[in-house]
Fold this sequence. Notes:
Number of domains: 3
Distance between the termini: 78 Å
Shape: elongated
CATH architecture of the largest domain: Orthogonal Bundle
Oligomer: single chain
Strand order of the largest sheet: 1-2-3
Helix content: 40-55%
Amino acid sequence: MSRRGHVYKRGDSWTYVLDVSLPGQRRRQTSKGGYRTKREALTALNEAQGALQRGLYVEPSKLSVKTFLLDHWLPATKAGLRESTFQGYRSAIRRYVLPHLGETRLQALTPDQLNAFYGELLVSGRSGGKGGLSPKTVHNVHVMLHKALHDAVRWSYLPRNVAEFSDPPRQTSSGKAMRTWTPEELLSFLQFVESDPFYAAWVLSSSTGMRRGEVLGLRWQDID
Length: 224
């Protein structure tokens, strides 16, 4: 099915016009400008026509990241989230996302912008810019944005999820070394629980390294 469209010059730039109406519908057109040359406008028009034929076309929109997240995404997803999760998302959006990306046009968001955003959070993401957020916290912000942008694609606000192509920080461990008991501390504990009904289990666990589930799952026929 052919789609009609054309380009024209407006001032110093070129604009394309695309017919997006379906058969039997009233004619509806959309346009997008700002192209430096006629060739660029024609290339963009051809890409839009191809996407329209494949069912992947997304109409140009000035919707901002802020408006999408606060007015569209959060209200639409609230019913399917735990209250604590919803409040966490809303807090992260207001504290971290909006100050950096809120006024960005949703369709103009790029992987590079997300990478720069994550970097800023790592360096000065805390309140008042007093220090950075942990990689785990920044990664959680990325997970939330990835979900939001995935929904934006499903709802035809975006042609693709740019978070798929960003590089969020990897989650790292806290760096705290695991503390284990000394032989003296273990002996003191076993003496303390000597009269406990589960004393045998404590001895078995501490002397063999068996996991709790393995100890509790033992039966008499398992013991030689």
